[in-house]
Every structure is written in structure tokens, then in C-alpha cells.
From TrEMBL:
It comes from the Eukaryota. Its EC number is 2.7.12.2. This is mitogen-activated protein kinase kinase. Residues 50-312 form the Protein kinase domain. One of its GO terms (molecular function) is MAP kinase kinase activity. The keyword Membrane does not apply. Keywords: ATP-binding, Kinase, Nucleotide-binding, Phosphoprotein, Serine/threonine-protein kinase, Transferase.
Length: 319
């Protein structure tokens, strides 16, 4: 196994694995932080334009705040990526901004409104506020999801993934906390901090980033799967685990209330059979999850294929 020696501290709920790549200077493209944004009421954003109202969360080296634009009183989410003087972190942040810019017209991806650099060197990303929180929060607050609700979640996330994959972008960190909902019950993909614009070969996406519990088998042991992994099919595996968790109320490879352990999760994902839904799940839902959780990445359905699955179609009159 390629990563057995890189065990992380087990106290974290879902430990993450850093992407260790060569560090090099990242030049700042001219005017990259200037964003024409009529919704913010200015041509160039700056730290003084916003009033912080609350901390919404932390993740991937950043803090997300609820903020108010001082002129327009519009409420936004502001993600501040810390330590962006580090070349690797800075490069990732610029890549995240670029991906968000490219996805502004997709209704199932959190909308990007602009970005700016703080005097400290930290980079801030202004996005729409998803005021109903994440699916992780909904699971903790309201309990498990019905199949009807999961079909809606799956359809909207797959719309977002289909959009990204068609543009050679792999998200690489699909999980309940990165899928957000607003007060219109719209479901959108968020947090592109470890996402990747893939090249013409799968080698461009060969790295261990994201949350290890939701990683596909080939992410842990690429040698056993031809030396590479497909970032698109890895997103589908993560989606399958996410839907499974929302249905049963706990992570599929753990018993309810069991604390995660990095090495145990890795062994379970790589060497155990994919988890099976309980008999209470419909045959359509069971088959849908099985199509996501094929151990061989080439056997998993694509996002476009899954959008035609009977589990999603049975609630739609047009199908």
C-alpha cells in the first residue's frame, strides 16, 4: 500500500491528507482579484467593503464568514484562505478562483461574486450565501433523509458534477459538508479548494487530497488499479458514500457512533466489499448506489449516465 506510513491523527472526524508537491514561486496574474460585480455595487472588491457577521465554518485551510456589503447591505459568504504567502497554498487558491469563475453559469454550483487580497496576504473569495447550511448539518439536525429527498439531492449534485466533468474539472472532495442548501431548497456543490482542472491524461489528477473517508479505492492504492485513477469516477464514488450516509445516518464503513481511524478506513475501503444498503431501501435506490460504489473505477456509471437512472426518474413525470 502506498500510503500506510502517512497515518493522520485519529481525533479528527474525517481526517484529510495533504497534497505534497514541489514548492515553487507562483506569480500573481495581473488584475486577478479585480472582479466586476454589480451585485456588490463596486468594480473592485476590498476588505473594507464588508462587515463580518458570523463564522460559518472552517475547512481546507480557510474560514468562511457571513458578511454584509456595507453599501448595498447584501449578505454573502466570504471564504478567507489563510497562509496564502505559501506558494503551494497560493497556487491552490488561484486554481479555486479560476474554477469558480468557469462555473458561474451552473445553477448547482455555489455562485462566485469576486475575490480580493487582504493586507496580510490572505486571499478572500466572495460567494453567494447558502443560508440553510450543509447536508451534514441537516443530517445532524433533522435526521436521516427519505428516498424522495435523496433523489432530489442526487439529481442536483449530478447536474453540477456533469457540468464540471464536461469541462475536465474533478471536484475531489464530495461529501455532506460540501453540499449546501439555500432557503429555496436549491442544492449546490461548494468548496473547490482541492479541485483539479484535469489535462488530457489522468496523470494530471494523481494526488492524495481531500477527505480520506470519501476517497475511492484507487486513490489509496493506485498501483492496484493500473497506476492512475479517474478523478471523475472518484467523484461518483464519493457521491455514493454521501447518499448512503444520509440514508442510514452514519458513515457506511463505520458502525453508528464508531470513531474513525485513518488506517482502518483505508483498509475497509480498499479490501472490503462495497457497503450494501439495508433492506428498507428500494431496489432502485440500492441499484443506484451500487452503480456509484463499484470497486473498479471503469465500472462506475458517469454523472451523465446516473442522471438517467430509474431512481432519479421514478419521481419525474417526464421520465
Amino acid at each position: 500500500m502506498a500510503l500506510v506510513h502517512r497515518r493522520r491523527h485519529p481525533n479528527l472526524r474525517l481526517p484529510e491528507i495533504s497534497d505534497h508537491r514541489p514548492r515553487f514561486s507562483v506569480p500573481l496574474p495581473p488584475n486577478i482579484y479585480k472582479q466586476s460585480s454589480s451585485s456588490a455595487g463596486c468594480d473592485t472588491l476590498s476588505p473594507g467593503d464588508f462587515e463580518k457577521l458570523a463564522v460559518l465554518g472552517h475547512g481546507n485551510g480557510g474560514t468562511v464568514y457571513k458578511v454584509r456589503h456595507k453599501v448595498t447591505s447584501t449578505i454573502y459568504a466570504l471564504k478567507v484562505n489563510h497562509n496564502d504567502s505559501d506558494p503551494t497554498t497560493r497556487r491552490r487558491t488561484l486554481a479555486e478562483i479560476n474554477i469558480l469563475r468557469r462555473a458561474t453559469d451552473c445553477p448547482n454550483i455555489v455562485k462566485f461574486h469576486g475575490s480580493f487580497e487582504k493586507p496580510t496576504g490572505d486571499i478572500a473569495i466572495l460567494m453567494e450565501l447558502m443560508d440553510s447550511g450543509s447536508l451534514e448539518t441537516a443530517l445532524k439536525t433533522n435526521g436521516t433523509f427519505s428516498e424522495t429527498k435523496l433523489a432530489t439531492v442526487a439529481r442536483e449534485v449530478l447536474n453540477g458534477l456533469s457540468y464540471l466533468h464536461a469541462r475536465n474539472i474533478a471536484h475531489r472532495d464530495i461529501k455532506p459538508s460540501n453540499i449546501l442548501v439555500n432557503n429555496k431548497n436549491e442544492v449546490k456543490i461548494a468548496d473547490f479548494g482541492v479541485s483539479k482542472s484535469m489535462g488530457r491524461t489522468l496523470e494530471a489528477c494523481n494526488s492524495y487530497v481531500g477527505t480520506c473517508a470519501y476517497m475511492s479505492p484507487e486513490r489509496f492504492d493506485p498501483e492496484a488499479y493500473g497506476g492512475n485513477y479517474n478523478g471523475f469516477s472518484a467523484d461518483i464514488w464519493s457521491l455514493g458514500l454521501t447518499l448512503f450516509e444520509l440514508y442510514v445516518g452514519h458513515f457506511p464503513f463505520l458502525q453508528s457512533g464508531q470513531r474513525p481511524d485513518w488506517a482502518m478506513l483505508m483498509c475497509a475501503i480498499c479490501f472490503s466489499d462495497p457497503p450494501s444498503l439495508p433492506d428498507t431501501a428500494s431496489l432502485e435506490f440500492q441499484d443506484f448506489v451500487e452503480c456509484c460504489l463499484k470497486k473498479e473505477s471503469g465500472e462506475r456509471w458517469t454523472a451523465a449516465q446516473l442522471l438517467t437512472h430509474p431512481f432519479l426518474c421514478k419521481e419525474m413525470d417526464s421520465c
